[in-house]
Amino acid sequence: MHKLRGWVLGSALLAVGLLISGCSSGSGTASPSPEVSVSSTDGSLVVGEGSKLPDSWPPDVAAPSGLALQSVVDSGDSAVALYLGPGDAVAAGSDVKSKMLANGYDLQTDSTQGPARVTTYLKDTTQVQVSVEQTGSDASVTVTVVRLA
Q: What is the Cα–Cα distance from 48 to 112, expressed in whole angstroms?
């Protein structure tokens, strides 16, 4: 399990690095093309607007309105989706929060970690962590879904 979490974290950092290098902050038009896709027996990583959520993604986990899905890291029992685009991070976070609560998720924690606002939700055996951050005129929302045993 430790190896798998390391793979997920490393892949997520790679995805963010690729996004940052492929986007110019505040432009609102630049985004990576769906050219990066890596799969192994441990999971998969897709970067670019051609990304799609894995079949295992819970349908009641909210996506922020108005932001494009830019990358997905899937390791089977956990998955990370990054949404990015021009917009207000506070509004995007509020949008996701209201949807998560309406879908029956309980708010577990809500805190600031550096420049990001991080909120954790729980429903049955599904834990969802939403991290929201403003970078210039762009908002980024990272949604992490973990299936608890």
A: 27
Tokens read off for 77? 């029992």
Domain that holds residue 91: 2-147
Tell me the torsion sign for CA atoms 75, 79, 83, 89: negative
- In tens, the pLDDT along 133-146 reads 999 999 999 999 99
pTM comes to: 0.74
CA separation for the pair 80, 144 (Å, rounded)? 4
Q: How far apart are CA 45 and CA 12, in angstroms?
A: 8
Give the total number of structural domains in the chain: 1
Tokens for 93? Answer: 């976070």
Q: How far apart are CA 124 and CA 126, in angstroms?
A: 6
CB 78 within 8 A of CB 99: no
pLDDT of residue 51: 78
Give CA torsion, residues 57, 61, 67, 70, to 10 deg: -20
Both structure tokens of 22: 């492929």
